[in-house]
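EI: anyone free to look at a 127-residue chain?
SC: sure, send it
EI:
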Amino acid sequence: QVQLVESGGGLVQAGHSLRLACAVSGRSVIAGTMGWFRQGPGKDRDFVAAIAWFGAATKYADSVKGRFTISREKAGNTLYLQMNSLRPEDTAVYYCAATAEYYSETYTYRTADFDSWGQGTQVTVSS
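SC: here you go
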């Protein structure tokens, strides 16, 4: 397993942007897939986006396509989530996750696919 620490959450108005970061440590060579999930009040933890650490293939939930961008900086071992045009329904705790596995671009990601998780960072979008 690796250690994951998220940062960058906060309170923003609808229509504005935030960039989340996830610092990865504990493994000398990072491989596999990394992802972002979110959990709103009283809701399940849902998939947001994923990226293959090598190759950079990405996948997004339909609700964030065209607004959010997942990326990774291999040199700095950091995962990012750029969130634009934020909406009140994006309000949630956002979690970074990692797995050593790779999946096809058509795969439907589940929380059970990831074995390392960060502590989460709160994102609140006001209307």
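EI: The chain is about 0% helix and 50% strand.
SC: 👍
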